[in-house]
């Protein structure tokens, strides 16, 4: 009787252990299935948040570009931005309809990369206002007898807003004092403002080509996104001026003083290549190349 009893006990114990093992396996399997269902949902929620953030960033970037808040870009950069925006929109559409969270993740990463390309990927440098090729200006209104005067804008300098075109082309304003004036949006071509004072003045988005600025004083001025292309700036003083996004391509800057002026790294490299960047300012005695930070040749 004892032998059968021990066999029964062993069989019972085996059945119980097997039952526990199967129960444990079923619990693990159920838990894994639950996690496998919940994990993609959590990932999808994260991906949706990431997509929303990217969309907002692209929209804000596009809005700033279209409003003129940032500097202009070259035509090839604009074409790159347009095609990248289209591709980004397509990828995000695919990502939204994807049922596989891994594919969704890959798509979002690609979308983020393209968004970064839209913002930073173009190799073309930003252009100062007035540096666009084939820049066309309206004819000079020679019937406006009060045109050749310095007038300060009361509408805010950030976007060079005025109630009419501020045209100083071919005006003779040598030796005048426009210190503290907001001259944003000014158009100068063959204009003589030599020895004029522009201390603490604003020149946002100024088009100042082929003009005479010899001996002018721009101390503490803000010259933002302006262009001095082809102009003469011999002996001009830019001490402590802000020269952000400003172009001196083709300008004569001999004997100019840029001491303590704020100039972007890219603009400094371009300015240092200017062959006329030499001499010594007759008013301040500053070495022209050293005042920019180029070093001696």
Automatic annotation (TrEMBL):
Domain of life: Eukaryota
InterPro entries linked: 5peptide_repeat (IPR001646)
Keywords: Repeat
Keyword Repeat appears in the UniProt entry: yes
Pfam families per the UniProt record, alphabetical: Pentapeptide (PF00805)
Leader peptide range in chain numbering: none
SUPFAM superfamilies (UniProt xref): Pentapeptide repeat-like
KW Membrane (keyword) present: no
Name of the protein in its database record: Thylakoid lumenal 17.4 kDa protein, chloroplastic
């Amino acid at each position: 009787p004892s032998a059968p009893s021990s066999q029964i006990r062993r069989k019972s114990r085996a059945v119980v252990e097997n039952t526990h093992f199967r129960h444990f396996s079923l619990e693990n399997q159920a838990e894994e299935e639950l996690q496998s269902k919940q994990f993609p949902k959590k990932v999808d929620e994260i991906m949706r948040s990431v997509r929303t953030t990217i969309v907002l960033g692209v929209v804000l970037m596009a809005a700033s570009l279209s409003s003129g808040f940032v500097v202009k870009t070259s035509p090839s950069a604009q074409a790159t931005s347009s095609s990248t925006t289209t591709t980004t929109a397509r990828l995000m559409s695919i990502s939204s309809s994807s049922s596989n969270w891994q594919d969704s993740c890959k798509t979002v990463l690609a979308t983020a990369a393209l968004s970064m390309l839209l913002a930073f990927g173009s190799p073309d440098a930003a252009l100062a206002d007035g540096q666009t090729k084939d820049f066309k200006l309206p004819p000079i209104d020679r019937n406006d007898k009060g045109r050749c005067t310095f007038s300060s804008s009361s509408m805010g300098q950030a976007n060079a807003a005025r109630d009419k075109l501020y045209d100083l082309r071919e005006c003779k304003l040598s030796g005048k004092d426009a210190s503290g004036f907001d001259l944003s949006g000014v158009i100068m071509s063959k204009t003589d403002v030599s020895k004029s004072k522009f201390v603490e003045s604003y020149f946002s988005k100024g088009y100042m080509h082929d003009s005479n600025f010899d001996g002018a004083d721009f101390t503490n001025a803000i010259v933002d996104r302006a262009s001095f292309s082809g102009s003469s700036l011999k002996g001009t003083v830019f001490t402590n001026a802000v020269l952000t996004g400003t172009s001196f391509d083709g300008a004569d800057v001999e004997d100019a003083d840029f001491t303590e002026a704020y100039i972007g790294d890219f603009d400094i490299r371009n300015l240092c290549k200017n062959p006329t960047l030499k001499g010594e300012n007759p008013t301040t005695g500053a070495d022209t190349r050293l005042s920019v930070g180029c070093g001696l040749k």
